Amino acid sequence: MNDVCNDKIITHITRRNGENCVLMSEEEYMSMCETLYLFGNPANARHLEKSLQEAEEGKFVQIDL
């Protein structure tokens, strides 16, 4: 479990007589839930996709805090 938490490894657990499972850190799980929530609204998803595209194209301003 330390590897899962420290190295952000998602582990697939295959069981013989039951459903398979996935083990991940709580931090990874919360991050995934937030991403699904943010992309769950179509208008918000379009805005985020546009922002990601602009960042990939270098169309951003870096601000030092």
Automatic annotation (TrEMBL):
Cited Pfam families: PhdYeFM_antitox
InterPro entries for this protein: Antitoxin_Phd/YefM, YefM-like_sf
Top-level taxonomic group: Bacteria
Function summary: Antitoxin component of a type II toxin-antitoxin (TA) system.
Entry similarity comment: Belongs to the phD/YefM antitoxin family.
Descriptive protein name: Antitoxin
Organism of this sequence: Paralysiella testudinis
